[in-house]
Amino acid sequence: MDRPVQLSSFANSFLPIHMLPIMPPRGGFSSVTPRTAAVDASGTKIVTCSQPRVGCMQIRYFKNWDASVSLISKIEGGYTVPMQVPASWGCSTSSFDALSAGSMSLASFSAQLEDANATRTWFLRVLGLVFTWLTVYCCFQPIAAAADIVGDCLAYIPCVGEFMEDLLEGMVDTLLCMVSCGVGCSCGLLVIGIVWLFMRPLIGGGLLLVCVVLGICAFAVAHQHKANKDISDQSVQLKEMYDNDSP
Description:
The chain is of the alpha+beta class. Among the domains are: 1-65, no CATH class; 140-235, no CATH class. It has four helices and eleven strands. The longest helix has 45 residues, at 201-245. The N and C termini lie far apart (96 Å). One of its GO terms (cellular component) is endoplasmic reticulum membrane.
């Protein structure tokens, strides 16, 4: 593990820290020598000013104190070289080697590499879904722009104009955010599910099933809304017919 090197044993080769200037010279330091620097009280820094100031310099040395390393590689001619990883589905031929400080068993080293890879993989997955969300949201921006234009017109209404403008734009932005999140994340999960269907069928099939269920739910909600609208229209038509037939 890297940590600062203790420089206390070299302090006598430098100036006492109280003899250093408080401020850096005009034009800055041209060089750092034992006659222009000192070891600070912590014994881990070489400083050029008695107090930390803008323009002053601090030098620290670090050392890797591990006495052994763990390595996964190929031995060739007495040297370590990367291993050739054969091509697989979706991946081309590549080379691989790994080095880590400390002595570890192969199982522990492999588990450490898998954990690091899993963290990176999940980060990229979440980032990809966020980007699909933002992409769909950008496609809906003309709607938000139209709402902004209408809001500008509402702002001219005395007393309540600005309130109505903020209300309209806030409702439209919230609705677009929710819709774009649903559409974008569904598309992202669909693509992930299709890829995983070839690599790990159980996981890919589960993701595709989730996408299908979400699609069915969305269709049912839209169909129910249309049915309610049709019933409302029929009620209005019946009322108009009744009013027309009444003496």
